[in-house]
Amino acid sequence: DAGITQSPRHKVTETGTPVTLRCHQTENHRYMYWYRQDPGHGLRLIHYSYGVKDTDKGEVSDGYSVSRSKTEDFLLTLESATSSQTSVYFCAIRPSGSGYEQYFGPGTRLTVT
Amino acid sequence: TQLLEQSPQFLSIQEGENLTVYCNSSSVFSSLQWYRQEPGEGPVLLVTVVTGGEVKKLKRLTFQFGDARKDSSLHITAAQPGDTGLYLCAGVEVTGFQKLVFGTGTRLLVSP
Questions:
Q1: What is the CATH number of the domain that holds A106?
Q2: Which site among A30, A35, A43, A61 would you substitute to test the B interface, given the most B Cβ atoms closer than 10 Å to its Cβ?
Q3: pLDDT tens digits for B2-30?
């Protein structure tokens, strides 16, 4: 158990509304990641963070923003949700000094209607 | 963007059969990881292979990293229903922040 929680676990929202997903970790890991998982695509990186207030874009960052004001929390925001953002979102951490292995949270299933 | 293609995409077999899952790319990776994911849960790391040609065994699972570090395979001997799940390979980029590039996934169903 890597001490990662995600909230909410499920959410249904309407097109055009803002949505924020939260990832919380308890072990002060420096590196945190947000992925989305869609059938046939595996996991795709949205944004990542390498420290408080240090974030960067992944391969599918359009329409998403992130914030990390505390080591333990990494927030993913959909400023104006679209149906194409219906997906399962996973947060992950990477312990420093590891072989780049990542440990994942339980996921958030988001449906945009 | 680096890509990892997995094959097959879906595999349905009987308990006791053997199977191999392939993970291929035209890009070189510094290491490669295999994860298994069950419904409603996040992926769980199975193994990391680092050296070209490396072979690692985890009980009935055998993982191999290609000599050129562009591909990998997962072989399961005498599959059991507990092996059912989504198998994902993930390559570690050689440059930059060593981000993970995930494969497209192989969904395995092992029936009793």
A1: 2.60.40.10
A2: A43
A3: 689 999 999 999 999 999 999 999 999 99
